[in-house]
Amino acid sequence: MKISNEQLALVNGRIKALLYADNFYGKKLKAASISEVNSADEFETLPFSEKADLRDAYPLGLMTAPEEEIVRIHSSSGTTGKPVIIPYTAKDVDDWAIMFKRCYEIAGITNKDRIQITPGYGLWTAGIGFQNGAEKLGAMVIPMGPGNTEKQLQMMQDMESTVLCSTSSYALLLSEEIEKRQLKDKIRLKKGVIGSERWSDKMRDTISNSLGISLYDIYGLTEIYGPGIGISCDENKGMHYFDDYLYIEIIDPKTLKPVPDGEMGEIVITTLVKEGAPLIRYRTHDLSRIIPGECPCGCKYPRLDTIMGRTDDMMKIKGVNVFPSQIEEILQKFDEVSSEYQIRISHLDGKDTMRIYVETNGTVDFMDLSKRIAEKVKSAIGFTPLVKVVEEGVLPRSEKKTKRVIDERYD
Ligand code: ZN
Fold this sequence. Notes:
The chain is an alpha/beta fold and 411 residues long. Helix content is 30%, strand content 26%. Strand 19 (351-360), helix 11 (366-381) and strand 20 form a beta-alpha-beta unit.
């Protein structure tokens, strides 16, 4: 989706502010002699922003509005190197709550709902984002924060919570506890709003069936407000995001050129109205695609597909970008195969080959299964892999994360 003229006008407002603040991006603009952009083509000449730029700006180098207008900071976790500090103005905080309120509305949540919030509060953007949006909506917030399952379940019953906000793993844990303690009759949950970690359809079905609730994926990252910049709807085909606050492009992470709608690539986000720390063409390294066309749900906001992984996972095979999650998704649809699989890529006689190893039990016709899987994979990625079916238990297992993709081309 090319940037619109309305969006361009907003970008130019941010360019002005960044030049004035003379921070890392202001300096990039100066170096490129850019003071405004007047077409989609010109927009695509703007330099990218990277996580490393944000880290280098530690502590407050991203601050773009005057200090007296900054009301809060948030920080992304510093597991790899220095953390990133994002300053917010009062308007940024309010804009974020407006987007989050829309997310709840898309999920069919109203001011009559009682929203139990289990993500963490503090420097992290999670808990407080869920809370501000819920208050904007006028719903009743039960601000639990993480952990203490005993208390969570007690409050869930006593407050008659109707909405659970959590990570997918915590939602699974709670659903198992509710089943174990036979509390299902005492629980009033109807919906779950689940944070953006990647989770399988199998896990989604388990949680949804066990609790009898509808689930919605929420998207967001600390650098761009936080969670609540997009959410899936009842159609469950991608997440709507708010193009009056954000411009989203999908780029090929190798060539850095935007790809057409519908094609997979890296999500790059430009904040259109953010004041405290505006970001232009921020590379998220998250992989997804823009879903073309309007959603059957009737909501007019454009859609991003479910996040398919990180750019680091991407493999280029026979000139096609392939992501392990695409293969995994296909394999999950075959009930005959176990959850273990292995992908091996090699370069033989001048061409790339992909072999997929899957496991099944002795009751299945190996040849037939291999043919059916190869066909499905071909229709998803465009070329036919070699599918090798083996006995259950043959593929290596490990306590830690099993290495499932082996690229022999670079050994
Ligand atoms: Zn929709």
